[in-house]
Description:
Radius of gyration: 18 Å
Order of helices and strands: EHHEHEHEHEEHEHHHEHE
Number of helices: 10
Amino acid sequence: MTPTAPTSKADGTVLTGVSETALMTLQVRANEARRPDSIIDDPMAIQLADSIEFDFAKFGFTRRQDMAVRALAFDRQARRYLADHPKATVVALAEGLQTSFYRLESVSDQFRWLTVDLPPMIDLRRKLLPASDRVQLCAQSALDFSWMDRVDSDDGVFITAEGLLMYLQPEESLGLIAECAKRFPGGRMMFDLPPAWFAKWISRGMLRPSLRYRVPPMPFSLTPSEAANLVNDIPGIRAVHDVALPPGRGKVFNALTWTVQRVTLFDNVRPVLTLLEFG
């Protein structure tokens, strides 16, 4: 789908709290997509960032590749699932200002997409992103499980919770996973979480992207071993996969990423990227 130039800019200040973090991740991804040596092809992210009136400088340094690498990891797993389930429904929980559908829409012309997010975010998406008869927008919290009634699971379900679970209370995150496992046997769910030390420092305000911005608290985290044990803790989970990040740009970045993800010594201090299979 070809981006079109915006006729007017939308006010980004309508997003507050956790929702505001979507502006930061969007700007990081758009800045990466603008690079001549970009690791992600995301013209819709550039269009979206250019369509929003907001002081992005408050987020500090946003010319980095981490958010793009994370997005590519989610894309890779979604593509693999859609290759086997071309008519599946992809459910993007708390999708924020992600542009995943537009990067994936060419994989199949049959899969459907359900965006679940709070009303202010849905209003922005409806105003700024191209409409598609393959995309449904659901204006509610991911914790209001009634969104599940809108999912046709006959041809498969792939659920993403990119940048969501860390901002929920532990019982909320685990409850959401459990309900997805119960409702969508045969489906998959992917999520990411920070390491406990990072979440603690963020919550205490010890790590800030800038003096003008403080990331909301992150009450929930898991180690890789704790994530792996979900197969024993939550009925309906058939398998748990520790997902490796795809390559980024630069030998140093890739060497550090490869080492941290594969050397068990770092398991308790590295982020978690998890794919669940529901049975």
